[in-house]
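for the recovery benchmark. tokens below, seq after
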């Protein structure tokens, strides 16, 4: 079977709280394999590992990468083994969100990183698909953007980081292609030092790194924040587009806090919204049913 990627994705003009920007609709690449997970896996789609029978990966129990790999493996006819360090009992009994979707794709879930087995006939993929082969698809994204924007204008491109693979490789590709698009990011999973460490593991040349901006308040990945949910709802209401709940709200807080930097902003929608359901459930349980309940 083959996976159809709808690329190039559109670049559409929007405005949010007085900031005019271009939105790169990578959420529209493919319903199942969306956003940067599709970009990072593009190499495997174009070069299916025909000599292998399985994919092995690891990471958090609700990750977008896990779900994306479960779909990719199913479509490529490979088995998929996924290791999570800890599986909460509640999820063992009733899987939800990305986990339940991935299990429907026949993912084999295992607990404990110490049990990870690299078999000779499997490909081991790092957490979050933070792989060197990911450059292949992200370079294509860079080329698409260069085609779509005005070559003589300076742009500031923003995208939030988990492993930082997408931001780093996009920044590198745009620099190598001599584009006037400059990449900015913010760490969502760890802090700035964690993100820099991730960059260094993939790329020794720091002149390729994107600029890192952060918030004064420390946000912990996967935790619920009233201001995240309110901003997410407002984005949806203003733009008519659903964003992702783990990464996008922090990105927009950073953009709004530094709006003077973003004269010609490009924002990348990195997909992942199929994982929102379990987050929305948690938000409603914690703060209440109605939008009004979230107000200070
Ligand atoms: C995975 C993901 C990210 C993080 O991507 P990295 O390449 O690991 O930095 C950001 N946003 C969304 C919506 C994602 O699914």
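predicted aa per position
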């Amino acid at each position: 079977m083959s996976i159809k990627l709808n690329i190039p994705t559109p670049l559409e003009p929007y405005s949010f709280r007085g900031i005019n920007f271009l939105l790169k609709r990578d959420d529209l690449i493919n319903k199942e394999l969306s956003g940067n997970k599709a970009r990072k896996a593009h190499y495997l789609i174009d070069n299916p590992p025909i000599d292998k029978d399985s994919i092995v990966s690891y990471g958090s129990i609700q990750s977008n990468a896990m779900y994306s790999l479960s779909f990719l493996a199913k479509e490529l006819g490979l088995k998929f083994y996924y290791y999570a360090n800890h599986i909460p009992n509640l999820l063992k009994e009733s899987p939800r969100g990305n986990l339940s979707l991935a299990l429907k794709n026949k993912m084999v879930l295992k607990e404990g990183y110490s049990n990870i087995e690299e078999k000779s006939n499997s490909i081991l993929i790092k957490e979050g698909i933070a792989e060197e082969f990911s450059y292949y698809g992200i370079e294509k994204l860079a080329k698409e953007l260069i085609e779509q924007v005005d070559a003589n204008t300076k742009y500031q491109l923003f995208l939030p980081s988990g492993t930082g693979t997408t931001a780093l490789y996009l920044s590198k590709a745009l620099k190598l292609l001599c584009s006037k698009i400059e990449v900015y990011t913010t760490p969502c999973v760890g802090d700035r030092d964690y993100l820099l460490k991730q960059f260094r593991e993939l790329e020794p040349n720091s002149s390729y790194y994107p600029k890192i901006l952060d918030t004064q308040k420390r946000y912990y990945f996967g935790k619920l924040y009233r201001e995240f949910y309110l901003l997410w709802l407002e984005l949806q209401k203003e733009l008519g587009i659903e964003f992702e709940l783990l990464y996008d709200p922090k990105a927009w807080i950073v953009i709004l806090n530094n709006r003077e930097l973003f004269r010609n902003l490009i924002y990348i929608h990195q997909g992942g919204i199929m994982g929102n359901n379990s987050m929305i459930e948690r938000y409603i349980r914690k703060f209440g049913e109605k939008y009004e309940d979230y107000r200070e």
